[in-house]
Amino acid sequence: VRQALADIGVDQHVAGRLGLRLYKIAMPFPLEPEGAEIFCGNLDLVIVVEEKRALIETQLKELMYGRHGAPAIIGKRDEAGKWLFPSAGRLDSNQIAVAIGERLMARAHDASVAARVSVMRWLLDAPAPPAPPLQRTPYFCAGCPHSTSTRVPEGSRALAGIGCHYLAQFMDRNTARYTQMGAEGASWIGEAPFSKRRHMFQNVGDGTYFHSGLMAIRAAIAANTNITFKILYNDAVAMTGGQPMDGPLTVDRITWQMHSEGARRIVVVSDEPEKYRGKAEFAPGVSVHHRDALDAVQRELREIEGVTVLVYDQTCAAEKRRRRKRGRYPDPPKRVFINDLVCEGCGDCGVKSNCVAVVPLETELGRKRAIDQSACNKDYSCLNGFCPSFVTVHGGGLKKGHGATASGEAKLPTVAEPSTATLKKPFNIVVTGVGGTGVITIGALLGMAAHLESKGCSILDQTGLAQKGGAVVSHVRIANAPDEITATRIAAGAADLLLGCDIVVAGGRDALTTLRAGRSSAVVNSHQTMTGDFTRNADLAFPGDRLTHAIESAVGGGNADFIHATRLATALLGDAIATNLFMLGYAFQKGRVPLSSASILRAVELNGVAVEMNKQAFLWGRRAAADLESVSKIAFPGVVVTAPKRPRTLDELIDHRAGFLMEYQDADYAHRYRALVAKVREAESRIIKGRSHLTEAVARYYFKLLAYKDEYEVARLYTSGQFASKLQSQFEGDYRLEFHLAPPLLARIDPATGEPKKRQYGPWILRLFRVLAKMRRLRATAFDVFAYSDDRRSERLLIDAYERTVVRLLESLSPQNYELAVEIAGIPEHIRGFGPIKRRAIECAKEREQEMLAEFERPRASPEAA
Questions:
Q1: What is the radius of gyration, based on Cα positions, of the chain?
Q2: pLDDT tens digits for 490-521?
Q3: Which ranges of 326-425 would DSSP assign to H, the alpha helix?
Q4: Pairwise CA distance, residues 584 & 588, whole Å
Q5: SS3 288
Q6: Cβ distance 291 to 271 under 8 Å?
């Protein structure tokens, strides 16, 4: 309320002149009557401002009801019964300013106050920013046990509860609803007798189990309910920061307790079942299984009448990372690497692992996959993706970022202290970023720096479950004195600076609504960090341009700086975690932070974490703001482009693909490609003048079908030299490779998935690859032993079918069906993967093609007839 009054220019003097009183109630219930009666004396109107439910308002009305001269009382609803301060949603100072200001002006007009109220009304009525093109929803950490443990068999359902596993509701886990801590499963006790579903899975965290969850399990056993409790033993309270779990809880103790309570069947599932051999004493009848058997185990449990228990044991991924940094947890010398030349971009590895460390890699031949080694927590479940592109690197280590050299730094002039923002009124900073990357730390450092300068500061962190890779927003307000800050939340249009450490969150509604053209400025990290949705949507596009435009529109032209902070900070300091301090340094040097560099650096020292790196990150951000070009040259000295040059013209694209097919097979094969593309180009130029989209589509996707990745091609791509070069660019030291393959003539079928089961092969397989690569001239001949498999026959049939389809398109091509023809020619884009993954994609593509061809050949009215 005090912030709202300040916004409309009502200080104590103006309030007295306009007849306004302010009464702050310290204890809302029970309401102290004498003070309230005195306050209401001689008033015409009382406006009760309270968030959530009306607690004070109802008591005040009851107190004043029937009294002579009692004022009108409004709060949740106004004089006409319409909503004024609704219980739902949040209440900010703009909304309060308009409600109070308009009623003041109706009784005692003041031109200055009226003008400010009009501005507040304009801000309040301004249309909300459009829905963001991408949202950063909280997600399981890379390698999180819940990515596997929360899966349920086809046809089953699960119920959520309190803990990180709650996030399964946002994913493809057939998991719904949650309850208060300790009541997990209780809802099904009451629901089961009235449901046709005979069984339910219920997720329960280990902390919840020890706290109060046991009671619900006991109740379910007493009621003889058909339910399987999945006790997720992750060895840490991860949702709130990785505290140690309460109580002396171990997996074997849980089995004994469940056995004593009367559970019908108890099983233990773990990513490391071998650790129990000779070391654990489980209750009678308990069996131990590897997590690969989770689906089969759950299918067995759901058929058993009564209460069954599955204890899923796998340490929290974030906790593993913390302990490894402290040397308190084994750090296996094994990392996953994806050969993007072999990768088809099908996304099966993301689906199987649900891991956010599997990231998109844009290449000349389309989107592939890579492993973000800085995020990977060594869960290895991505290896289950049915794809021969996965290699594990044993031994050695990651190559560290080269960092900036002393000679490079010497070339830069010393940065001068900038002219900082003034503090005539509180200065408002909105910090946005991704949970787990140190966003909250930025607010804490600013708060400590302000304290060191004897300034006032308030910090409001909006995190929710955002520490799990979701959106984090911090509202930081800095003033000359603490009593100048009367509200912690930054209202709509009140931000002076948007420090966007992540462009997705910076372009979201929560951040954009705080901005106002003419007042706000923005410094935004333009690095494109994909959201967790990418694990399930292989074609998810990052809307960088739309997010940039939304931020620029909100702050007005020339008031937004976008910088590749992640890339620069990683190159200069060797670690992406330096990005946020780099961003703060950049904004500081631009004069957009009302503090001194000395106090910020002292706050970094007092924080005591990675002090030197953080101080350097802040300094490099300042340098980048002063001379970005020089800093970029130091970060990337003599940049050598190792990736193939992207074709810029249609001719270059065709030449590149034809050259690839020469290496793939021979000159005749490349000629076959060029012949069809030339035929399409001639027809398109004759029928659709000035357009080349159809030719480009055929050039891309006819090539894709011709260059199918059979055994010879996979072997060639592993031995061409590019694979070894990319490995050496990421790893150093003495390392050994293992290849994860499912050779068609050797692989066994996994009964759980129906897919061929992958096996590990040592570095000797490269010798076999070299032999196979030289035998590629045998492809599709009578001597090709692989040619008789269903997959290879299917791939050759696809080529023939595509050639016929293209001829069919050219025969009926017209300006009216041109766009549809281009779309049909691009259908092979969706045919990706290997083995069963590719077979499913082919079936979907064929169905889509038939629908589109029917539409393509449907008679259309001519423009003249229309």
A1: 32
A2: 999 999 999 999 999 999 999 999 999 999 99
A3: 348-353, 406-410
A4: 6
A5: strand
A6: yes
Q: CA–CA separation, 676 vs 349, rounded Å?
A: 34
H/E stretch holding 704 reads: helix 693-706
For residues 554 and 515, the answer to whether their CB atoms sit within 8 Å is yes
Residue 861: CA count within 13 A, CB half-sphere: 4
Q: Can you tell me the distance from the alpha carbon of 742 to that of 760, in angstroms, rounded to the nearest whole number?
A: 9
Percent above pLDDT 70 for the chain = 95
Would the pLDDT of 97 be above 70? yes
Q: Which two tokens stand for residue 652?
A: 């270059």
For residue 681, give Cα distances in angstroms to 537, 655, 799.
33, 14, 19
Contact 480, 421 (CB under 8 A): no
Question: By three-state DSSP, how is residue 377 classified?
Answer: coil
Neighbours of 42 (CB within 10 A): 8
- Nearest Cα neighbor of 544 from 562, 532, 522 is 562
Alpha helices in 720-789, H assignment, sequence order: 722-730, 765-774
Tell me which residue of 10, 8, 114, 102 sits closest to 47, measured CA to CA.
102
Query: 602 near 451, Cβ under 8 Å?
Result: no
Alpha-carbon torsion, ordered 432, 560, 568, 343, to 10 deg: 70
Write out pLDDT tens, residues 632-670.
988 888 654 444 455 579 999 999 999 999 999 999 999
Tokens of 814: 């017209």
Short-list 698, 708, 653, 697, CA closest to 675: 698
What does each C-alpha distance from 807 to 107, 699, 813, 828 come to in angstroms? 80, 14, 10, 16
Q: What is the mean pLDDT of residues 754-760?
A: 89
How far apart, in whole angstroms, are the C-alpha atoms of residue 557 and residue 537?
A: 34
Relative to beta strand 158-159, strand 200-205 is parallel
Return the SS3 of 685. helix
Q: Report residue 54: phi and psi, to 5°.
A: -80, 100
How many C-beta atoms lie closer than 10 Å to residue 130's C-beta?
11
Neighbours of 234 (CB within 10 A): 26
pLDDT digits (tens, 9 = 90+) for 226-283: 999 999 999 877 666 667 777 778 999 999 999 999 999 999 999 999 999 888 899 9
d(CA 512, CA 196): 47
The span from the CA of 112 to the CA of 127, in Å, is 25
DSSP secondary structure of 508-559: SHHHHTT--TTT-EEEEE---PPPGGGGT-TTPPP-HHHHHHHHHHHH-TT-
Write down the pTM of the prediction. 0.86
The token pair that represents 490 in the structure block: 């930054």
Is 775 strand, coil or helix? coil
**Residue that the structure tokens 């002292």 belong to:** 602
The span from the first CA to the last CA of the chain, in angstroms, equals 64
Alpha-carbon distance of 555 to 551, in angstroms, equals: 6
Question: Within a 13 Å sphere around the CA of 144, how many CA atoms are in the beta-carbon half?
Answer: 25
**How wide is the angle at C-alpha 305 spanned by C-alphas 301 and 308, nearest 5°?**
45
- Our measurement of the distance from residue 784's CA atom to the centroid of its chain's CA atoms, rounded to an integer in Å, reads 45
Per-residue confidence band for 860, with pLDDT thresholds at 50, 70 and 90: low
What average pLDDT does the segment 524-528 reach? 95
Phi/psi at 783 (nearest 5 deg)?
A: -95, 5
Give the pLDDT band (50/70/90) at residue 437: confident
Segment 253-256 long-range contacts (CB within 8 Å, at least 24 positions apart): 254/206, 254/209, 254/311, 255/282, 255/283, 255/286, 255/309, 255/311, 256/282, 256/283
